[in-house]
Write a structure and sequence with these properties.
This protein is α/β, with parallel strands linked by helices. It folds into three domains: 122 residues, 2-Layer Sandwich (D-amino Acid Aminotransferase, Chain A, domain 1); 290 residues, 3-Layer(aba) Sandwich (Rossmann fold); 196 residues, Succinyl-CoA synthetase domains (Rossmann fold), CATH 3.40.50.261. The chain contains 23 helices and 31 strands. Helix 8 crosses helix 13.
């Protein structure tokens, strides 16, 4: 019986699952290795068939309602005699009751390693293949990984190595390494089933047994049938060019303009004007009159000049009536700051849906509602509720939390991280985070895309877009709400393990998205990706002014997948000429408080020339000015032979020294195209993460702590490895 016939028969019988025997027939049709087995209808047949197979045996109850046989005691292992076999069959008959349709008789296979593989349909992302550590403790251990189908050979091999217990794949306690080709065949078969048999909702293969010679066999299997309930697509894609137009208005009308400090109509307007926006600004309020000496129009229809963007801050209940005025004025883009829509509950959602319906009919595109605003430093447009104004750069930032977004903007302003554009996407009634990502994809000025995400509207579109964008420029994301919410009450292990966040994180990994763990990671990573060349490997050289820091950084490198490579004798001999005899003679290179910039650069140059060095982290070389400032303050207070001028002159020399060091570091990166990341000894209000050097391709990047430098470099390496794999595949 073919796969189609098996499924059609089950559906005609109103079954939601296949028997184990039926499930294995379908798996076998897709080249998945399954255990040899026979079906017996009664105890007499079992005894007859057992003589053909030979002991030891496995006996299982068979039936379409017997989904979790182990829990019901319907699996009897290592049966060694006809007497044991009869006893097992009688027990299974009594335990299964009316659900018993027959028996499965299998040879008892040996093997200490058990894995699990499966297929699950996610409403957001579609079919996903699962692999992990199996057996009776699958859910308890939770060592599983997912990938979205369809999969290719290389993606499957990467997926397999992602489990924490990957050592089980190699030689293990006298047993041979897993036959990787057979394991790959299993997961590719599941991927193919996902794409070809839409009636299958879940598949669970547990255990996937590994024999002592490494052979892979599906010993037990379950296939669940049902509708793959895809989440309804509520947001049609927006043309990427429209996203660009939104951030380049030549004129803005503020509807709900106010003179009262702290009102949104005052916050947005004053920020735009004070930020030196060069376009035309118009104020609108039904009261008319003047605000800050500017005429206030009672309606947008009274404005004599064209308007590109309307910034709306009026109460939610008054927004619908202005749609007609916006249409008459031919205003296509609306930044809807007002709250009181979908975020407040069902009534607000009804209002939001009606707003979207009318806006679409009027040809209007709304960003928001409930947004903190947008900014485009390249045209000095700072239209946000928080008055922060970062400089222009290549980092595009989209945040579904306005407060978090504006905090990140403030951090970017302080640390010198240039922003391409920012959007607080709010409720995403019309423009979604997927639209923004695709808009930045086609924007040549965007070098890095950074996102804070709490939800996505179309998971598969998000995945496909991110995978496409990631080949052109890094995509960095922080996911809010990462707790185990929305776990499926599914019939299989696969469904039980497939939480929303696991599938989301797997999609990100597969698409090459760099995942941040903390909010500040977003801009740490942005600083690195937008300022440094990508490392081509994970081998790191560490330069430090103190041995302890080197030890700490080495530990952190090891924990983040980076290798602190031993120095060859050739390089040690060369460094002996430049450093005191008591230097570390190893990597990390302890500079033993050496202050000579030329020596620092000579060491860095030698390390970057070294084929086994892909990146440098230097620690404590920059930031000594702050430490010495404290020493000078104490000296002046105690010793009156020194004065304030001596202090300032000394600090100026240190500033020049540290700036010269950054300049030379950036120049040497331009020479070798390998990243060099610094760590400050101490920081103050003047220190910045990113330091621009005029005329240079790269920038200086110096973090406040070793762990931030190591984490950023490790993420860069992972992205470079993913990118290289994508480029090799096509």
């Amino acid at each position: 019986m073919h796969s189609t016939e098996i499924i059609e028969k089950a559906i005609s019988e109103n079954r939601t699952s296949l028997t184990e025997a039926e499930s294995k027939k379908i798996l076998k049709a897709y080249d998945i290795p399954v255990v040899g087995e026979v079906i017996a209808n009664n105890i007499d047949e079992i005894e007859s068939l057992s003589r053909e197979i030979g002991f030891p045996l496995v006996l299982k109850g068979l039936g379409s309602k017997l989904l979790h046989k182990t829990e019901r005691g319907l699996v009897k292992l290592n049966i060694r005699s006809p007497e044991e076999l009869r006893m097992a069959a009688v027990y299974i008959e009594e335990a299964a009751g009316e659900d018993l349709e027959g028996y499965l008789l299998q040879p008892m296979l040996e093997g200490r390693r058990e894995f699990v593989a499966g297929l699950f349909f996610d409403p957001q992302f579609g079919p996903a293949v699962m692999f992990g550590v199996g057996g009776v403790f699958t859910e308890a251990i939770g060592d599983v990984v997912f990938r979205l189908a369809p999969l290719d050979d290389k993606e499957v091999r990467l997926m397999i190595r992602d489990i924490r217990a990957s050592k089980l794949l190699g030689d293990f306690r006298g047993e041979k390494a897993v036959n990787m080709d057979e394991l790959v065949t299993v997961l590719l078969g599941l991927s193919e089933i996902a794409m070809k048999i839409p009636q299958i909702k879940e598949i669970d293969i547990n255990p996937l047994l590994i024999s002592p010679d490494g052979k892979v066999t599906a010993v037990d299997a379950l296939i669940v049938l049902g509708d793959r309930k895809q989440q309804k697509i509520t947001h049609p894609p927006v043309d990427p060019r429209e996203i660009g137009n939104l951030f380049y208005p030549k004129s803005i009308a503020f509807i709900g303009a106010s003179a009262e400090i702290s009102k949104w109509g005052q916050l947005m307007y004053t920020n735009v004007v004070a930020g030196n926006y060069a376009g035309s600004v118009f104020l609108v309020n039904p009261k008319g009159g003047e605000i800050t000496g500017r005429k206030v129009y009672q309606s947008v229809t009274e404005i004599p000049d064209p308007v590109d963007l309307a910034v709306v801050t009026i109460p939610a209940g008054r927004v619908l009536p202005i749609i007609d005025d916006l249409k008459k004025k031919k205003i296509k883009y609306v930044l809807l700051v007002s709250s009181g829509f979908g975020e407040v509950g069902p009534e607000g959602k009804v209002l939001e849906n009606e707003l979207v319906r009318q806006a679409r009919q009027a040809g209007i595109l709304i960003f928001g509602p409930n947004t903190m605003g947008i900014c485009n430093p390249h045209i000095s447009l700072y239209c946000t509720g928080t008055h922060v104004r970062p400089g222009a750069g290549g980092t595009a930032l989209v945040a579904q939390s306005g407060n978090l977004g504006t905090q990140l903007l403030a951090f970017a302003e302080k640390e010198g991280i240039g922003i391409r554009a920012f959007g607080g996407s709010g409720n995403e009634a019309m423009i979604t985070i997927e639209d923004c990502m695709e808009g930045f994809e086609v924007d040549d000025m965007t070098k890095t895309v950074v996102m804070y995400i709490e939800s996505i509207k179309n998971g598969r579109r998000f995945y496909e877009s991110a995978k496409r964008v990631g080949i052109k420029k890094p995509v960095i994301a922080l996911k809010g709400g990462r707790t185990q919410a929305g776990a499926s009450a599914a019939a299989s292990h696969t469904g039980a393990m497939a939480t929303n966040i696991k599938v989301f994180e797997s999609a990100c990994k597969q698409a090459g998205i760099i995942q941040a763990e903390q909010p500040m990671d977003l801009l740490d990573l942005s600083a690195s990706f937008s300022s440094l060349p990508l490392p081509q490997g994970n081998r790191v050289a560490i330069m430090t002014l103190g041995g302890g820091w080197g030890v700490v950084a080495s530990d952190q490198c090891a924990e983040n997948g980076l290798i602190v490579q031993p120095l060859p004798e050739r390089i040690i001999s060369k460094f002996n000429n430049w450093l005191p005899p008591f230097w570390s003679h190893a990597n990390p290179v302890d500079l033993v408080a050496e202050m000579n910039t030329d020596i620092h650069m000579a060491i860095a140059d030698e390390l970057l020339q070294w084929d086994e060095c892909d990146a440098i982290i230097h620690m404590g070389i920059i930031g000594r000015r702050i430490m010495i400032q404290g020493v000078l303050d104490s000296t002046i207070a105690v010793d009156k032979t020194y004065d304030q001028k001596f202090k300032e002159d000394s600090l100026d020399l240190l500033r020049i020294y540290e700036h010269e060091l950054v300049v030379k570091t950036v120049q040497i990166m331009g020479k070798y195209h390998k990243p060099v990341i610094g760590v400050y000894l101490l920081t103050d209000e003047t220190t910045r993460t990113v330091i621009d050097i005029e005329g240079e391709k790269y920038k200086g990047v110096v973090f406040p702590s070793p762990e931030r430098a190591v984490k950023a470099l490790a993420k860069m390496y992972k992205y470079a490895r993913w990118l290289k794999g994508k480029q090799q595949r096509g």
